[in-house]
Amino acid sequence: MENCNGTASELIVKQGEPTLVVPAEETQKGLYFLSNLDQNIAVIVRTIYCFRSDKEGNERAGKVLREALEKVLIHYHPLAGRLTISAEGKLIVDCNGEGAIFVEAEANCTLDEIGDTAKPDPVTLGKLVYDVPGARNILEMPPLVAQVTKFKCGGFVLGLGMNHCMFDGLGAMEFVNSWGETARGLPITVKPFLDRSILKARNPPKIRYPHREFAEIEDTSNTKELYKEEMQYRSFCFEPDMLQNLKKKALEDGVLEKCSVFEALSAFVWRARTKALSLQPEQQTKLLFAVDGRAKFNPPLPTGYFGNGIVLTNSLCQAGELQGKPLSFAVGLVQKAIKIVTDDYMRSAIDYFEVTRAGPSLACTLLITTWSRLSFHTTDFGWGEPVLSGPVALPEKEVILFLSHGKERSINVLLGLPGSAMTIFQELMQI
């Protein structure tokens, strides 16, 4: 960050006392079931939404957002509860109505002085999301934490800490947009469907697939040593013409008839990251990514399903094969991973967790998370759409994030790598 005279300065955020926001009306109490698709991704996802306004425009922001949150929590009442462990040893929500944490804060500068909020920066952007003091694990953190930070320019930032076990990207977007509609005095467009028992494991379980997304890979390339270097975070913008060129490159040898932007871009960054990490030719490497299963379940999940409707699928091959063969080979692996996701596959994954309680292994793995189809930028609390929205940090070193950028359908690719690997990766991005 730089101040007005060009010298480096530090973002200072003065936080007020945290308060609890409870639903505006009495809501249902008791234990709330989380499906097996919710169990494996119990991590706090921190995001920010930056809003511009006139000089005094942010004075009402805290009050407006707090009162709207009280009302929207009537519909999303599990977010006012607390996570606990069920008799079966799984995560479950105690709907005790304790409330979401809400904090108002003030920054020492203008929004423009924060610097580049388009790439993850846990140190600077982390100050815009309230960190629950003394919380040692996710059971000691509320499912929802909100901080409204006012800036000297009149703008403000809404910083959210939300537990991924409560919803996937689409569910989170629907919640935040419903909160915005409530703040503007409008009825909620998409009412949440709360019953997650529709994704209960079968009895007896039927595991019909190998589910290699959970497979442990031996790190024969000793990447642990490489990751001792300082991590560097970068954002790479793929504009529409670059994305079309990637698709052309994937199709030029005639092996594939067609491919999507996601398939081409995923294959491209998987190969580039594999090379940047200097994986040995015989090293097994895995690509993991989430597929939205809402429409693929039979019957499809109801509109507004409040929970994780995504399932992880995977591609697995040797690093030498991935790099030595044309881009079409990697794209083909991605396409097979997408094609395998059917109702039967997803219910098999649910049953697999029921039996094994296994979590996906991330050794020698790239996990791609796609937000490029999520319209967080449409969120409006009464101050217009955010000028910028995105994550504060990447949850794991193996994660790459695809974010939509601008209105011309560009995609920002966000990732972190050890310094020496990032140098190689940057060179490979020159397409």
Automatic annotation (TrEMBL):
<dbReference type="InterPro" id="IPR023213">
    <property type="entry name" value="CAT-like_dom_sf"/>
</dbReference>
<keyword id="KW-0808">Transferase</keyword>
<keyword id="KW-0012">Acyltransferase</keyword>
<dbReference type="Pfam" id="PF02458">
    <property type="entry name" value="Transferase"/>
</dbReference>
<dbReference type="InterPro" id="IPR050317">
    <property type="entry name" value="Plant_Fungal_Acyltransferase"/>
</dbReference>
<comment type="similarity">
    <text>Belongs to the plant acyltransferase family.</text>
</comment>
<dbReference type="GO" id="GO:0016747">
    <property type="term" value="F:acyltransferase activity, transferring groups other than amino-acyl groups"/>
</dbReference>
<protein>
    <recommendedName>
        <fullName>Omega-hydroxypalmitate O-feruloyl transferase</fullName>
    </recommendedName>
</protein>
